[in-house]
Amino acid sequence: MPSCLQKDGKVSIPLNNIKVDSDGNELMASLTEAILPTTNTPGAKSLSSHAFVLMMVDECFKKEEQEKFMRGLQQFDEVARKKTGSGFSAADAKQKSELLTAIEAKKDIPAEVLSFYNAVKSLAIQSFTGSKYYLTEVRKYDMVPGRFHGCFPVVDKKM
Amino acid sequence: MGVTNDKLNFDAIVIGSGLSGGWAAKEFCEKGFKTLLLERGRDVKHIKDYPTTNMYPWEFKHGGQVPAKIQEENPIVSRCYAFREDAMHFFVKDNEHPYVQEKPFDWIRGYQVGGKSIMWARQTQRWSDYDFEGPARDGFAVDWPIRYKDIAPWYSYVEKFVGISGNKDGLDSLPDGEFLPPWELTCVENYFKDFISKNYKDRHVIYARCAHLSKPEPIHLEQGRGQCQGRVLCQRGCPFGGYFNANSTTIPWAQKTGNLTLRPFSVVHSIIYDEKKGKATGVRVIDTNTKESIEYFAPVIFVNAAALNTNLILLNSTSNRFPNGLGNDNGLLGKYFAFHNYRARISAKYDAFKEFTTDGRRPTSAYIPRFRNLVKQETDFLRGYAAGFNSFRSSVNQSTDGLFGEELKNALLAKPEPGPWNVGSHMMGETIPKEKNHVSLDKEKKDAWGIPLLRMSVEYDDNDEKMTKDFIEQMTEMYTKAGFTDIKTTDSKSAPGLDIHEMGGVRMGHDPKTSLLNKWHQLHACPNVFVTDGACMTSTSTQNPSLTYMAFTARAANYAVEQMKKGEL
Q1: CB B497 within 8 A of CB B346
Q2: How far from the centroid of its chain's Cα atoms is residue B292's Cα?
Q3: B370/B357 Cα distance (integer angstroms)
C-alpha cells in the first residue's frame, strides 16, 4: 500500500516514516491554521503549512524525535477533546483560542504536548518565513545583489 | 610533440581533475601535449551540471536542511559546514567510499570533474619565506627545497589567470600578489584593523584575498567568466563563473586547445613502472561503469588525486623495484602527514557604529595573518595560526513567545530592529608533520574496484593543544581590548579533517633519504612522476593551501615540458 493511502483509504500527503491518518491530517491542518491564520496575507491553509510540518517531521526528524512528536500529537488530541468536547478540528474559534492560550502559558499542559506544539509552531513559522510570498513581499531575498557596502546608513536600510 | 594515433598513448597523463590537476592539464595542453585527464567520478560541466545554482530558498524542499536519513547514514560528511541541501550532491557520501580510521579523521571528498574546487572556500593567501623557512629554522620535518623567490613568479602567473580579489597590504609575512579590486571591509572591520595596528606593532588585520572576479580582466572574459555578483552561493557552482573552479576555467581552457582527453569514471589503480626502462610508463585505470581495466601510457605522469588519494595511488603502485610503493625507497611514503588545526572559534558583539549596517553581500571577510613566532620563537609551542575576522550587523526580530494567530503573524511581518554588530574569528593553525601521523593501505579490505582501503592514523599533539589555547587567549585579549563584549570561545575538539587541508605523505626535500620529491616535485627515484597536490607539502603553515598548489603545479608542469623538449624525461 502506498504510504499516501492511509487506513481509511483517503489520500493524505506521502509519508514514509510516520503514520498520520485523515483525522490526524485534519487536526494538523486546523492547528497550523489556528497558529498562523490566513488573513489578507497567506497563512497555513494557503501555504499548506500542515503538509510542510508533517513532511519535515517525516524526513528531517530523527526516529526518537518522530516518536515523541507522534505521542505529542495523540496527547494534544486528547487534551483538546477534554477541553472542547468536540476535538480541536471541530471546536469553534473561541475554544481553539483558549486552548492555545493555555498551551502558550504552559498551564497544566503535559510536557509532550508542549514539545509537540512548539515543534508545530516553529515549523509553521518556517513555512511562512521561508515562503515565496515572505521572501519576495516582506523581506526580499536578493538572489543577485551585485554589490556590497560595508558601511551603509541604517536609516535607508530596508531590514 | 608527435601526434599520437593510438587511443592509449598520450604525451602526458594527469590523475585527478580538481584544482591542481586542472592546472596541469591546462599547461600541458597549451604547450601542445596530447593530455589525458583522468577523473574517478562523473563529469560536471560548468553551469549545465549545477542543478541548484539558480534555486530560490523556497524551492528547497527541506529549507536547506539535509534529511535525517542522509545525515544518519553519512555522519562524517554531515559534519562538513558546506554539506547542505543545496550542495550535497557534490560531496562523497561516507558509505559510498569507506576508509579505515585507526584514529578518527573526517575525510571530506568531492569525486567529480572539478573535484573540491566546486565547493572550496576560495581563500587565496600567498606563502612567504617565514613559511618556507619554518622547518629549517624550527627544526622539524625537513627543509623545503624551494623558497619564496622560486614560486613568486608562478603565484603571479596563476593569480592573473584565476582572478584574485585583494588589497596591496605590503606585509612581508603575506606577500602581495596580482590583485583585482577588493570588496569593502565593514565599519567594524576597519575599526578593528586600525585598533590592532595601533596597539600591536606586529599584528595586522587585512582584507582576505579570494579567488573572485571583482572586476574581470580580458583574460577572464576570454574564459567565458563574468563579474562576481556577490550571491555567495558559490558551493552550488556559479552561473557567472564569478569564482575560480576547474570546471569554468582550467578544464575548458585545456579543451579549447583540442589536446585534452577528459576521461571521467576512471579510477586509477596504480602507476605502471617499467623495470627495464627505469621509469614509469603509464597508469592502470578501472572504468567504474564497465569495471574494465585499461592501461594508458605517457612519458610523464602528474599525480593530482588530492593528498590522500595521491598517497593511496603511490602506495598501491608496487613493483619488484618498488615493493613498498612507487618512489618509496626510504619507507617515508604516507608518513609526516599533516593538516590545519581549525578547532577554535571566538565570537562577540560590538555595541557601536549603530548608525551603520551593511548592504548587499561579499564573498570574503577580513584576515589576521600569523603573528605568533613569526620572526623568532616566542612561545612554548612551535609555529602559529592565522585567523579570519568577520562582522555583520544582526537584526532582532520581534519575539514570537506566547503568540499565535494574528498576533503571531503581525510579529513575523514587523520590521526587525537593527541589533548589535556580531564579530567572529576562526583559527587556522599550523600543525607539525610527524612520522607517526601516517596513512597506509589496509592489508585485507578493498573497495569495489579491488583497490586497498586507506587507513588513517593522524591525530593532534601537545603542540596543537598549546596553540589552540594560545589562540583563545590572544584573540580574547585582542577582542577585549577592542571593546567587544559578550565574548564566547569554543574548542570544538573535532577530529582532524574538517579543515579539508590534508597535506603531506609525499613530501618535498633536498635529500632522497629523507624526502620523496625533489624541488621540481619529481619523485627522487622515479623522476617522470610528479606530485603537485597537497601530498607534496613538507610543512603546512597557516594559509589556505589551494593557491600554492596551483602555483606549484604550473611551475612543475612547465619544468616537465622543458625537460621533455630537451629529451631529459
Answers
A1: no
A2: 32
A3: 29
Residue A7 clears pLDDT 90, i.e. is over it: no
Across the interface, of B227, B360, B413, the residue whose CB is closest to A148 is B360
Residue located via cell numbers 587541508: B501
List the single residue in A with minimal CA-CA distance to B240: A144
* Alpha carbon distances (Å) from B131 to A159, B1, B210, B233: 44, 38, 20, 32
How far is the C-alpha of B141 from the C-alpha of B432, rounded, in Å?
8
Q: For chain A, give every domain's residue range.
A: 22-156
List the grid coordinates of B28. Answer: 600541458
Q: Are B100 and B69 in contact (CB under 8 A)?
A: no
Sequence-distant (≥ 6) Cβ neighbours of residue A121 within 8 angstroms: A35, B400, B404
What region does B302 belong to: left with phi over 0, alpha with psi -120 to 50, or beta?
Answer: beta
Q: Which residue has the cell 514587523?
A: B414
Which tens digits make up the pLDDT trace of B224-260? 999 999 999 999 999 999 999 999 999 999 999 999 9
Q: Chain A residue with minimal CA distance to B56?
A: A143
Check: CB of residue B108 under 8 Å from CB of residue B99: no
One-letter amino acid for residue A2 of the chain: P
Q: What is the overall mean pLDDT for chain B?
A: 97
Residue B359 to residue A60, Cβ atoms within 8 A:
no
- pTM equals 0.96
Distance CA A90, CA A153 (A): 51
Q: How is residue B191 written as a grid cell?
A: 575599526
The helix (H) or strand (E) run that includes residue B219 is helix B218-222
| Reported ipTM | 0.92
Taking an 8 Å cut-off on Cβ atoms, the answer to whether B183 and A150 are in contact is yes
Put simply, whether B201 touches A (Cβ < 8 Å) is no
- B439-481 confidence digits (pLDDT tens): 999 999 999 999 999 999 999 999 999 999 999 999 999 999 9
Helices (H), chain A: 22-35, 44-47, 49-60, 63-84, 93-104, 111-129, 132-133
